[in-house]
Amino acid sequence: MWAPQMPELLEHYQVLRYDTRGHGASDAPAGDYSIEQMARDVLALADALGLKTFNFCGLSMGGAIGQWLAIHAPERLRALVLANTSAQFSSEILEARRKAVLQDGMSSVVDAAMGRFFMPETLARGGPYTQSIRSVFLGSNPQGYAGCCAAIRDVNHKSGLAKIHAPTLVIVGDHDASTPWTGHGDLLASGIPGAKAVHLPTAHLSNLEQPGSFVAAVLEFLLATKP
What we know:
Layout: H1 6-9, H2 35-48, E1 54-59, H3 61-72, E2 77-83, H4 91-104, H5 110-117, H6 120-125, H7 128-138, H8 142-153, E3 168-173, H9 181-191, E4 196-200, H10 206-209, H11 211-225
Parallel strand pairs: 1-2, 2-3, 3-4
Helix pairs in contact: 2-3, 4-8
């Protein structure tokens, strides 16, 4: 997911990419997950690697994880990038998605997911990112995906946003139907003290539709927060 950003980021930072539980090579235990559980996975991973503090960049579910970390483990975060995410998601949609994949598998929701991830013109062009995302999605464990749907379904960080004191950048896709500016990005930008916001002409996976603009915004922000 983050391959397009790696060359530029590695010029300035060590970068840790990991598969969240339920995704990729990580375990996909049965049952519902929680954002707290997934955030504590991050802390356990950082502890195991001896990382006392770190910058955190998360997109969508990753952004919900980042908010939990900033609220509940503020001493660990240097800076926070919240991309295409929200303090509260549509619980009805996520519950329906959770049930669908458990009953009918990943193929039952892949077309709808791709329509959220990318703009129609991006899908029409094809290309390596759209094809690889589709393949990875179809290869995901339905049990793990459903567990993550439950975690996102139950997120509600609205009352905690004012407690976030890490320097924060909010990145929003202007064509993002899942977490648009109105009701999602705007609440993060206004609710987190001192947060900055950047708009990109993308759907939900902004770092893949506008990889150069995305990493430029992230680096400009992170380098300005260095002590």
